[in-house]
Design brief:
This protein is α+β, with helices and mostly antiparallel strands. The protein is built from six helices and eleven strands. The longest helix has 17 residues, at 133-149.
Length: 228
Amino acid sequence: MWLSCTAAVHRTFAAVASPFQRCCGFTACAAADASEAPRIPKVHTSTVALIPPDDAWSVVQAARRSLGDRGLYRWPPHINLLYPFVPPERYPDALPRLASALRSIEPFELSLDALGCFGGRSRGVLYTYASAPDSLARLRQLQGALERAMPMCDDQRKAGGGSEFVPHMTLCHFSSREEAEEARDRLAASDAWRPTTFRVADDAVHVMRRAGDSGQPGAGSGIENHFV
């Protein structure tokens, strides 16, 4: 079952003691120091993301399952901070820069308490987000620190059409915004959704790479996760 599998994977992230550990297709890796930011192409199979702790997964995963999210096995629940990101061969250059940027961030509480949609006639996305202004400000501070470390990775800040980062955690994709809004209303009225609150610290930020097309755990596919 996916929920128990992903929870076990995340516990491996949190308990990692050696430079590399593998569980269900995920790899965790530590980082060292470096200097100049690389100027290189970005890929859509690589991201810097905020991943919630174990006890926050159940609500999000239950909602994704109830919605029939096709990405359930492709990515764990996450908020993209820098996406697309650099390819894996550049991680040795990038990870130390990100680690340095995180030293300026104080831990904070984050409550994903609202549901929203974006898209249009041919695409729709249902997501959850933090409605509290302080939470939004803290997430923008976190994303800004990481972007300053990797200034070529500014897509997430520009994605909303403005100059500020709009953080969100995707729950499901749909063929139109109208379908996403209908699903939002059903989810809000169901037992599959409730707000979830968790603590964000530097160990919540990960660099992930999707290996293979399916993204499902197993040989030759899955997600590689690198501690920042």
